[in-house]
Amino acid sequence: MSESKNHPASTEVGHAHAGGEVVHADRFPDPGVPEHKPRLTDTDPKAAKRAERIVTLLFTISALGTIATLVAYFAVRPDGTTEGVRLSTLLLGVSMAVSLLGIGIAAVHWAKSLMSNHEYVDDRHTTATSAEAREVAVIALQQGVEDSGIARRGVLKGAAFGAIALFPLTVAVPLISSVGDDWDVSKFRHTLWRKGVRLATDPDGRPLKAADLTIGSVAHIQPDVPLEERETHHWITEKAKAIVLLVRLNPDDIRSEQREGASYEGIVAYSKVCTHVGCPVALYEQQTHHLLCPCHQSTFDIADGAKVVFGPAKRPLPQLPITVDDEGYLVAEDDFSEPIGPSYWERLK
């Protein structure tokens, strides 16, 4: 049986017969690139001009979004209340979204309506690029610039460069202006916990009695403060440092504590701020008494002083020493046994 010769513009189809022999059927020609169908903007100058105006408008909207971001950043500063923080965050988020989306949508519309949409075929070649191929690549890049029409559309070019140049200000200005912010790390050495401060459930703020907890019970805890104080931005910041996980164990299961007498009848309280990078540690496994950080799987044994048993964390969770007051409510005896959270400069250990 004669065998057909290879041809660069054809494809070979084989069929297997009984016995495993492959018989080559007739080759079919390469269908090639489909016929190019021009867009409306390719044939109608008015449509092309209209598309150019739309793209220019989108870039202009992006630039206005950047300006609105800067205005919102300086004019609507958080005033210390929850509502003020929400308003500032909302205005910054919306204006930055308008700025970035304007650039993105304009770029997509430009590519689909104004740039060349002809199909091109590039043959495969060896990995090493010859000097001739590099020259061809440079020519192709120049052709791409020409196809984009940016050179002959001055208004569009100005709008595009203006929007792209302005957008980084939405990130750069807040970063630069924050250089003078408070960098006092000593604030992490202390939290809202003081002697006599009651332990309250998070988030409803209900004071908790030791009698409310049975062995195996778990509660998310925050300091008990007046309701009006919980509406301030200062409270939100301080609460983030003071969050606690409270667990009642069988007293016989407690093998060690960070500080002698820090627990009360098997009830232990540990900081929820992971000592790795500060994620909230709140996944408790009752059988093993292990506390898991969901971010990087650091695992702490709360029956053994919250020591690290797995993961990247290097230090135990700080323990909050607790007791009960005259009414049976759980209260703190002092602040945490050591600074909460990840390592930072000036920390002794």
From TrEMBL:
Major localization listed first in the record, in broad terms: membrane
Start and end residues of each Rieske domain: 267-331
Keywords: 2Fe-2S, Cell membrane, Disulfide bond, Electron transport, Iron, Iron-sulfur, Membrane, Metal-binding, Oxidoreductase, Respiratory chain, Transmembrane, Transmembrane helix, Transport
Transmembrane regions listed in the UniProt entry: 54-75, 87-108, 158-177
Needed co-factor(s): [2Fe-2S] cluster
Molecular function via GO: 2 iron, 2 sulfur cluster binding; metal ion binding; monooxygenase activity; oxidoreductase activity, acting on paired donors, with incorporation or reduction of molecular oxygen
Subcellular location: Cell membrane
CC terms in the record's Gene Ontology section: plasma membrane
Membrane topology qualifier: Multi-pass membrane protein
Biased composition (Basic and acidic residues): 23-45
Stretches for region Disordered: 1-45
Family under the similarity heading: Belongs to the Rieske iron-sulfur protein family.
Biological role stated in the UniProt entry: Iron-sulfur subunit of the cytochrome bc1 complex, an essential component of the respiratory electron transport chain required for ATP synthesis. The bc1 complex catalyzes the oxidation of menaquinol and the reduction of cytochrome c in the respiratory chain. The bc1 complex operates through a Q-cycle mechanism that couples electron transfer to generation of the proton gradient that drives ATP synthesis.
PANTHER family (alphabetical): CYTOCHROME B-C1 COMPLEX SUBUNIT RIESKE, MITOCHONDRIAL
Protein name (database record): Cytochrome bc1 complex Rieske iron-sulfur subunit
Source species: Xylanimonas cellulosilytica (strain DSM 15894 / JCM 12276 / CECT 5975 / KCTC 9989 / LMG 20990 / NBRC 107835 / XIL07)
